[in-house]
User: Fold these one by one.
Assistant:
Number 1:
Amino acid sequence: MAEIERTLVVLKPDTVKRGLVGEIVTRFERAGLKIVAMKMVAPDELHFHKHYEGIGNLISRWGEDIFNVALAQMTDAPVVAIVLEGVEAVHYVRKMVGTTDPKESAPGTIRGDYTHVTRGYTNPIGATLPNILHASGNLEEATKEIELWFEKSEIYDNYETVNGAVVRGFVPTKK
């Protein structure tokens, strides 16, 4: 059975600098996802190491040079971290976001609509991959990432959105 899940989204410095934060948050809200936590932060190198290597194994998969470029990008300006909640939220948000390499992201996805630079261009010149945001890859990763980015006291799940039953499915009462 499908369940209500939480996932982490981090709007990267390129999003903040381009003034796209509100537009991207609006897309998640219009899809019916509930924001249960959100903050602008400027994490340090240790935080990003825990995120990228401790949870995502970026260094193990892509190497120290790629991590250093990603670190330079992520510490260039603040980021906006968001916890979204919804039915199968992890999978749904990944679908909305598009693939990590914008070249593979379809129009209509966030990366497909707001970026076009690819790894094939950036990696050989040692540049960052401005791909707008990070979204948890699976439920286990989402749980670990949310714990890294947010204290329990920063998560507000004790409210209902006005469209909750409309977007999650209305259950009629029997008469």
Number 2:
Amino acid sequence: MRQSEILLAEIKQESIATRKLLELVPFDKADYKPHEKSMTLLRLATHVAEISGWWKECLLDNELDFAKGDHTPKVITSTADLLALHDKHILQAEKILNSIAEEEFSKPWTMRAGETIFFTKCKSEVVRTWCMNHLYHHRAQLDVYLRLLDVPLPGVYGPSADAQG
């Protein structure tokens, strides 16, 4: 099985769980932060929705330069906007993975800010770390925020404590 097929299957499965969480974000608590150093609930939820859009930068491009382009977070004002952003990025990721050549995964990729290079790694490692693991990390944070706000949580890899009753 090609690496792109493995990643595509994982994206399809995980996007369901991500979408379930994003549906639950209470916009009346958008400014909630469990700690002063934490992101707000809305910023975190938006970040979770944005991460699935990184496939283009991490797989089709050869670098991400923070000194170029606009890296301002999207402004989201509703659940519909949040879900639309997530869904748009998932469709884009699926399209990329359905068309990418397998040899693209072994090419080098660099994260930088102008002349400052943070790292260079092969694209297979970059997409695993930045497009997948990074998503899981922040999705788990979103889970915690929602739990602290007493929002009943859906199951991800089986029933949640809330789903079990």
